[in-house]
Model the fold of this input.
Amino acid sequence: MEKSGEFRRGWPVLAAASVGIGLGMSPLPFYTIGVFIPPLLAEFGSEGCDVGFIINALAIYTFGSMAASPIIGIVAEKFGARRVALISIVTFSLSLMAISLNTGSKSLYIVLWLLMAISGVGTLPITFTRPVANWFKSNRGIALGIALITTGVFGALAKYFAQFMVQHSDWRTAYVAVGFLPLIISLPLSLIALRDVDDTPASESAITKFKVPILAISLIGAVGFTGIVVRQVLQSISNNGVRFEYLLPFGYIPLIFLPIVCMLLFKVGTRLPEIKTQANGDAIVLPGMTLGQALCHWRFWVLALCFVPISYAVGAVIPNIEQVLTQSGMGMDEAVGLATLTGLAVLGGRVIGGYLIDRFWAPAVAFFFLASPAIALWMLGHPDVDANTATIAILMIGFGAGVEYDFMAYMVSKYFGMRSYSAIYGSIYSFFGMGAGLGPGIMTNLATGNGIKLVEWETGLLLGKDWQFTLTTAGIILFVSTVPLLFLGRYRYSEEGDLGEALTEAEETVETAHA
Done:
């Protein structure tokens, strides 16, 4: 398939996957939890609920996603990514709304977040990136980058959306409203256009006949969502004056409407890509390793173990940015505004990183992109950080955060192939989720002097530390943990080598059968 032909054919799949990921479990709870901390403390602080416990919700849902990620990957391989994604969008939306049922009971709080983790894991990139990787080969890196751009875009806008709902209603209504977003915006798009290579093509699907009324739901939802965001941004401008971070949402908003409008105006039923497969009866078997083979390969464990500290160092600071900045003397509106700059940096990291890994060796690009934010963590950790320094640091951190998923997805496809992509990616993602989920709570407790604390278990380690120590240490960890990526070696499933690998593995299968 020619490079230009990939985008002509695959843009509907890419558009649906992009919105599905952007309104999935990865960005929404992660980016918005900082907005919910003040109202939760105000209501439940007298009952023993502190900042550390609230943000440890991310650790709770990490345990659930760690356990469910490999399982959902295997299920996606067996029943298809499309089915898993559609069901998970609904269950994730309902479980996110259910967090509004919190009564201050710590056990109920834990159960609600655990429920969201298990029911929403199918909205992670594990499922959505599989169709994208199958539809795009020559442009796989940039396509994955585009698909994952929306984690920063929707994450940044969701902060404003949640803040408006909290200020003009209450935190319970805010959680219900945020939970509605995937249901009314991403579900219709995925229903119409999210198709893997083994799904019924959109041109042959009866549901595409109802494209206009189905997509109208997404359009109405997007109008309501962005309308509330604009109102909150204008209020922030009124309170704090015109700032760069307040102008960014006006640049993000067209990206929300672009997939919907394109699907309304243009044909979504395009020809399936030509995929090289192995012979196995009537089943489509893509070239690559099985999950069992990958688990026995040293590269799997290098990726899995490196992404634990990487996701801690880069990911844990994002939901804590509001805390870091407000303790430096900034107001909450200003802190939220600066925090939304991560969306711009994530967008840049996704596109630039995706472009580069299509042309250069991905581990080297990953080393540069993921190691450089170490300096930013040190900058942000200073107790007297000002708005200008914070802006630079946040942009650098967001730039690094913008490439984590891209590199992980791309390297899984290049080192292990597409045969069991979702299962292998899901297994590695569970390690990534360990750092990203446990990290925010660990970072908060370290910085507030409480030491390392896992949910309610106090380890007694590193007591009495502050933000400067915590963020500087995270920077060192980040740099050191990216070095092993440079030893991964050449791709096993490169564009030129896929057919050779497939034939070799097919011959080995035949020889085994005759033995």
Summary: Residues 211-240 form the longest helix (30 residues).
